[in-house]
Design brief:
376 residues, alpha/beta, Dna Topoisomerase Vi A Subunit, Chain: A, domain 2, 3 domains, six-stranded mixed β-sheet, two-stranded antiparallel ribbon, 48% helix, 10% strand, elongated, Protein of uncharacterized function C-terminus (DUF2399), CHP02679_N
Length: 376
């Protein structure tokens, strides 16, 4: 059935166009039959145009347009409502059906993704189901992500490989498995999940800090970058044969960057020494300028501790550490992590509720580092 041209011209007038747009919206959302009424805030001219194809008394009635009377008015001119809507805007969509199909496809994809992940890490128990789903949760396609994760896990363990080398071999991108990528995060979490399933231990999110990230990869024979992770130190009295020992001894009074690589080997803090820990390099640089080689040992995390910072600080054992950071949310997060993981950690001029930034307390901190005072 073709729609007469004059009817199409009428349908494109402002009033009929608004009416038919609303009818189309409702039809595509499941409106069927002759029930229902469309009521919009039409102007007098719009009501006049709409009324040309309805009963004569509708224009002055003030009510909306009933589906039954719209169909009846169009049939009198040889057109059906759906035919007119199709002629104006193309085929009608079944949005309910589309949503149902999309939901079914999504559930199928998720089931396939979980099956692939289970094949890669082993059969997890109910207590780890939330973890498994969380690994794939951010991905548009669970099956696609799980397939890539399975490929990565299958390529680990045979012989030691560097992380960037593995990424380049599998995905032609040396950064594909970086911590900043969804795939890298999914893979390292899957490795930890596989360890928990295999050993029957508890799961700990390897994204909590850089040390856990590296340990999870290392457990699968994958070597992470050991030179980009650094920690800044001043007058750190280390002993042993690790490269970090020679670096610290070579530059008394000067800030020194230690890499994770330089901390490989045997090292420990000189007997009786205590360490101060700050967040910002301004404090360490100022201590070097004012005190030089006379400054107390100082470690700067430079924000959230890197893997190198954790390797150094946790390697101190129960050595007394005076720790502080800025008094903001991130700073307190750093301090709480340090107190949780370092048995010898005590806050340094940072009482509970402190909101001061380190630069605001610089003179007091420098006085402590000289040895004249030691604030709470």
């Amino acid at each position: 059935m073709s729609v007469p041209g004059y009817l199409l011209a009428w349908a494109r007038l402002p009033g009929p166009a608004r009416l038919l747009a609303e009818v189309r919206r409702r039809r595509e959302r499941g409106w069927r039959g002759d029930r229902g009424e469309v009521s919009l805030d039409w102007s007098p001219s719009e009501r006049r145009d709409i009324g040309r194809f309805l009963k004569a008394d509708w224009r002055e009635s003030g009510r909306g347009v009933r589906a039954s009377e719209l169909r009846q008015g169009l049939r009198a001119h040889g057109a059906g409502l759906d035919e007119l809507l199709v002629a104006l805007g193309g085929p009608l969509r079944d949005l309910r059906g589309e949503r149902a199909e999309a939901e079914q496809a999504r559930e199928s994809d998720r089931a396939a993704g979980l099956a692939l992940l289970r094949g890669a890490v082993g059969d997890w128990g109910d207590d780890l189901t939330v973890v498994a789903r969380g690994i794939l949760q951010p991905a548009p396609s669970w099956a696609l992500l799980a397939g890539e994760v399975a490929d990565v896990l299958a390529a680990t363990g045979e012989e030691p490989r560097r992380l960037a080398e593995l990424a380049a071999a599998l995905f032609r991108d040396p950064h594909a498995l970086d911590r900043s990528t969804p795939l890298g995060r999914a893979c390292v979490r899957s490795l930890e999940l596989r360890r928990a399933v295999t050993e029957g231990g508890s799961y700990r999110d390897p994204l909590e800090d850089a040390q856990l990230w590296s340990a999870a990869w290392a457990g699968a024979g994958v070597i992470c970058d050991a030179v980009s992770a650094q920690v800044l130190v001043l007058n750190l009295p280390l002993t042993g044969n690790a490269p970090a020992v020679r670096l610290c001894h070579a530059a008394p009074g000067e800030p020194v960057w230690l890499t994770l690589r330089s901390l490989r080997g045997a090292w420990e803090l000189a007997r009786g020494a205590e360490v101060f820990v700050c967040e910002n390099p301004t404090v360490l640089e100022a201590a070097a300028d004012r005190h030089g080689a006379a400054s107390r040992p100082l470690v700067c995390t430079f924000g959230l501790p890197s893997q190198a910072a954790w390797e150094l600080l946790t390697g101190l054992g129960d050595v007394r550490c005076h720790v502080r950071a800025d008094g903001d949310v991130v700073g307190w997060r750093i301090v709480n992590q340090l107190r949780d993981r370092l048995p010898g950690a005590f806050t340094w001029r940072m009482p509970e509720g402190c909101t001061a930034y380190e630069e605001e307390l610089l003179e007091d901190l420098l006085s402590d580092l000289k040895g004249d005072t030691l604030g709470p």
